[in-house]
Write a structure and sequence with these properties.
With 64 residues, the protein is mainly beta. It contains one helix and five strands; from the N terminus they run ββαβββ. The longest helix has 6 residues. Strands 2-1-5-3-4 form a five-stranded mixed beta sheet, with no helix packed on it. The protein has a single domain, classed as Roll (Ubiquitin-like (UB roll)).
Length: 64
């Protein structure tokens, strides 16, 4: 299982980009941290999610 934003998902073996395509997240306006390391957008397609990874996804929100 992979913990994403506090919930567990059976997505080990998927790339981060593959996972994001199954969600409503817009990869252009998010930041992703895996195991306390920020993942650059250019590496989403090569970053493979592994058992016990902890992933945090945050969206940028505009306003003022």
């Amino acid at each position: 299982m992979v913990k994403i934003n506090g919930k567990e998902y059976a997505v080990e073996g998927m790339t981060l980009l593959e996972y994001l395509k199954t969600t409503v997240y817009d990869p252009t306006v998010i930041a992703v941290e895996r195991n306390e390391e920020i993942i650059p957008k250019a590496r989403y397609g090569e970053t493979i999610l592994k058992e016990n990874d902890i992933v945090e996804i945050v969206s940028f929100v505009g306003g003022g």
